[in-house]
Every structure is written in C-alpha cells, then in structure tokens.
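[Discussion] Sanity-checking designs against the backbone

I'm trying to build intuition for which residues belong where. Below is a structure token string of 213 positions. I'd appreciate it if someone posts a full sequence so I can compare it with mine line by line.
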C-alpha cells in the first residue's frame, strides 16, 4: 500500500503520444493503492483503483466531500462500461454514438460494482469513457475502471487546470500528478439513462442533441 510521506511525483506526459514508461509508473501507483491526478477530456481529475477504499476516503478528504458523495467510474471503452452497468439495447445505441466523450452516464449498477459506490436508493452508478489519450492510456494499461472525481478544491469556483498549481496544492496529498498540459474548466454533461427517455441532469461539455434532448 502506498504511503505518501514526502512529495508527489510529477510526470510530464505527452498529450497526444503518452510515454509508456511513465504510464507504467502511473499504473503501478494505482495498483499499489496510490491516488493520482490526471487530465481528462473535460478537466483534471483525482483517481484511485476500484477496490481502494482508503483511496476513496482520501478523495473525499481532499475535496471535503460528504460520505454519500457519488463517485464516477472511468472506463476504457463501451465494453468495460457494459460490464459495470446494466445497459438496455436502446441505451447501448446511444452510448455507442457518444463514447468516447465528455459525458457521464447514470445507469443501473451491475454486481461488479462495490456497494459503497452505488447510489443506495436507486442502485445506480455514474460511468464515463473519456476522449483523452493520457486517460485512455492509463485505463488500457491498468485494465480496469478508475474511481474518479473532478479536481475541484473546496472554495474554488472552477477545477484546477494548471499542473504546476496542482502540484503546489496537492504535493503532500497524492502520489502522482500527471502534467498533460493546461486542463479544461468545464464539467461533463450528465445524462440519466435509467428512464424511458434520456434525461440531461447537468449540461456541460457534451452535446445533449446526441440524445434527442
């Protein structure tokens, strides 16, 4: 298990052609219980492995989130997403059009999702497939979803988007900060696919016209 007693490692990774040796070190950190900061197609995010309960507690502490905060699962592809959620055929066709991309989808969780990640009343989970080469390389090499949350610190109106500012703010809170260049300031569009028709719960970067709304 990672014990972060010193300072976060700072990896500058090419935004279009991520260096495998650096991606491998990020993956090893996740496998050993570490918490990382990495870029997505929306904004920078915090992440840890799916089975890392202590890591999730650290994500909550860093962002000062309540115990019942619903994290998102970042998935490699549509196949991965289909393993961790129940996807009806009509929804599958919509997901195929919208992934990868800046969307978070609310779906019924499958049995592979730990109970602590599931919305208790509705039994749902938020999932997404990012369109960012660094995030996708991490996911491909890790071979499993990442528990993730936007890097919005308490009291800040927008997510942190400068990797050097992120390092200064979190150098004693996380194991690795991935520098993939300046990040975005926008959130994903959140789409609930559990009902008879798609419902946009939050408008962000993704175009809701893909879902006919």
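Best answer:
Here's mine. Compare freely.
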């Amino acid at each position: 298990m990672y014990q972060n007693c010193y300072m976060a490692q700072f990896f500058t990774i090419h935004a279009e052609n991520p260096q495998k040796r650096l991606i491998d070190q990020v993956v090893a950190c996740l496998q050993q219980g570490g918490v990382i900061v990495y870029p997505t197609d929306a904004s920078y995010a915090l992440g840890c492995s799916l089975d890392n309960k202590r890591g999730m507690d650290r994500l909550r502490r860093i962002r000062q989130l309540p115990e019942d905060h619903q994290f998102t699962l970042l998935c490699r592809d549509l196949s991965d997403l289909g393993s961790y959620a129940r996807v009806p055929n009509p929804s599958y066709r919509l997901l195929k059009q919208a992934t990868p991309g800046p969307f978070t989808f609310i779906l019924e969780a499958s049995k592979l999702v730990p109970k602590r990640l599931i919305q208790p009343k509705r039994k749902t989970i938020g999932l997404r497939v990012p369109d960012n080469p660094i995030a996708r390389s991490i996911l491909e090499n890790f071979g499993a979803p990442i528990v993730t949350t936007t890097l919005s610190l308490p009291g800040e109106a927008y997510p942190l988007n400068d990797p050097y500012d992120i390092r200064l703010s979190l150098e004693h809170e996380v194991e690795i900060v991935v520098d993939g260049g300046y990040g975005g300031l926008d959130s994903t569009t959140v789409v609930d696919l559990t009902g008879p028709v798609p419902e946009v719960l939050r408008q962000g970067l993704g175009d809701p016209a893909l879902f006919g709304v």
